[in-house]
């Protein structure tokens, strides 16, 4: 079985002159980029890193970060990227937890790195002015190895992503070359990518979606277009300039693109295939995205950092809300919410917890130094996702939220996603997030937080919910109109922020 280094080398040998990566005006072919990657791999080894060591990076999506990712795949070093918005506390904790042997960062993380104080490991600065005693990226890559560095095998560790922590420290998710390659192959197949494909590299390379975009392009000699951080105008410029053929984004970024005054269908005419993951897309947004792009392929991808793909629907608008069926390398089940065994499956249309088969080619094998998390999530060969959902009569999966997000109001279970979908179709609603707020009478009170397009009253929205067929006990009993829905850096709604901010307020009578 190929490791990722050999996979990249195959692309170099197939089409050495094809454009592999661009970053603004900079472009590199597979042949020239391979030389950069080899020099970076050699530089890491001269720093003292060897096979199995962890390299921590804290950078925006620039060609140097993509170069380091591939350099690690050739040298057998474990790429360990962190969110460039991390605090000094987050960075310091992860450096210790990962047993990091070196840190490479750009100026976006300079403040956090400086606040960490003296580091006991080598530090490299990319793209900025290196301080005394700190190596620059150019110095790291100054020398060429005498022979091609190709030290990793399919069973070696490739990558360790950190899952975003909400109430505790993030968990490291180590993944082998074979699992990363299988996920990239599945991504190519499930999104119907072909040769000469060109993708937008704006999803961060510390996130599984960004990594998948990077790897999948190399498998078919494609072009990865770096966009350091999401900005609507910079993104539209990149799409136009590079004639990008596919997008793979979280729903929030699609929303920001199509709602911006600079957007027009003509500017994205080269895009033929679009996919989304990371969070559900509401029915209302799905309709607007399809009208704006008119894609040949519209893929709903449901997965996680631990197991890249759970389900795929290649016609996302066919059945709004559906996440489709098992993907190329996966089996899934829906079991009782409190199930301790994968055998406790529920009936169609009955909500439960979604679990996935750990025998998948794409699966991880357990969290880094977290036997407590393993005991909670890994049972009898299955991964308990903590996501809720149900199968309909056709066998399609509907993801309704997280076990922790489920609202129990008056003794009834209510899914936020169902209410959000209903409200998203009202023309006055631009975005909506539903949470449960503490309430003496109901236990949890269903509250809708809404960013409006134009004014409307809570009474009108309440009447709309009833007329849409939403059960009366599920309709919101509180409406809050806010300027922005709080989200994580990769676009996930931060329900806990809404609960913390509004949970002490008295419910409207």
UniProtKB/TrEMBL annotation:
SUPFAM superfamilies for the chain: Acetyl-CoA synthetase-like
Domain AMP-dependent synthetase/ligase: 10-368
Domain AMP-binding enzyme C-terminal: 418-492
InterPro entries given in the database record: AMP-bd_C, AMP-bd_C_sf, AMP-binding_CS, AMP-dep_synth/lig_dom, ANL_N_sf
Protein biosynthesis found in the keyword field: no
Keywords, ordered alphabetically: Ligase
Recorded family membership: Belongs to the ATP-dependent AMP-binding enzyme family.
The name this protein goes by in its record: AMP-binding protein
């Amino acid at each position: 079985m190929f490791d990722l280094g050999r996979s990249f080398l195959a692309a170099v040998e197939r089409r050495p002159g094809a454009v592999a990566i661009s970053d603004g005006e900079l472009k590199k072919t597979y042949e020239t980029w391979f030389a950069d990657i080899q020099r970076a791999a050699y530089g890491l080894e001269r720093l003292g890193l060897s096979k199995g060591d962890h390299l921590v990076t804290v950078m925006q999506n620039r060609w140097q970060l993509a170069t380091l990712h591939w350099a690690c795949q050739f040298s057998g070093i474990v790429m360990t990227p962190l969110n460039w918005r991390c605090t000094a506390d987050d960075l310091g904790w992860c450096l210790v937890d990962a047993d990091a042997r070196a840190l490479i960062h750009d100026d976006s993380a300079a403040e956090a790195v400086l606040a960490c104080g003296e580091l006991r490991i080598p530090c490299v600065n990319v793209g900025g002015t290196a301080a005394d005693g700190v190596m620059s990226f150019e110095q790291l890559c100054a020398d060429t190895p005498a022979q091609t560095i190709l030290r990793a095998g399919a069973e070696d560790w490739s990558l360790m992503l950190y899952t975003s922590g909400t109430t505790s420290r993030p968990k490291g998710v180590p993944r082998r070359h074979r699992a990363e390659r299988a996920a990239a192959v599945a991504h190519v197949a499930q999104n119907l990518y072909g040769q000469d494909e060109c993708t937008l590299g704006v999803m961060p390379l510390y996130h599984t979606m960004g990594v998948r975009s990077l790897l999948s392009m190399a498998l078919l000699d494609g072009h990865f277009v770096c966009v350091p951080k999401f900005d609507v105008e910079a993104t539209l410029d990149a799409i136009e300039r590079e004639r990008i053929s596919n997008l793979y984004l979280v729903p929030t970024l699609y929303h920001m693109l199509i709602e911006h005054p600079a957007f027009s269908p003509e500017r994205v005419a080269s895009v033929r295939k679009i996919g989304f993951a990371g969070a559900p897309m509401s029915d209302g947004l799905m309709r607007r995205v399809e009208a704006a792009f008119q894609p040949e392929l519209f893929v709903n991808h449901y997965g996680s950092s631990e197991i890249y793909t759970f389900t795929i629907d290649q016609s996302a608008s066919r059945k709004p809300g559906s996440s489709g069926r098992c993907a190329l390398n996966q089996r899934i089940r829906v079991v009782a919410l409190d199930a301790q065994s994968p055998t406790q499956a529920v009936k169609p249309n009955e909500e439960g917890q979604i679990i996935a088969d750990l025998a998948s080619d794409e699966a991880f094998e357990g969290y880094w130094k977290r036997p407590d998390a393993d005991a909670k999530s890994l049972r009898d060969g299955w991964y308990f996702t903590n996501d809720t959902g149900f199968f309909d009569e056709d066998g399609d999966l509907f993801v309704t939220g997280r076990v922790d997000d489920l609202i129990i109001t008056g003794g009834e279970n209510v899914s936020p996603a169902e209410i959000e979908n209903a409200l998203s179709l009202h023309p006055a609603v631009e975005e909506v997030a539903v949470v449960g707020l503490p309430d003496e009478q109901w236990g949890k009170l269903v509250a809708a937080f809404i960013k409006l397009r134009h004014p409307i009253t809570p009474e009108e929205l309440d009447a709309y919910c009833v007329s849409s067929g939403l059960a009366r006990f599920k309709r919101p009993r509180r409406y809050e109109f806010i300027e922005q829905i709080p989200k994580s850096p990769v676009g996930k709604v931060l329900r806990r922020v809404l609960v913390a901010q509004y949970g002490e307020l008295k419910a409207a009578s």
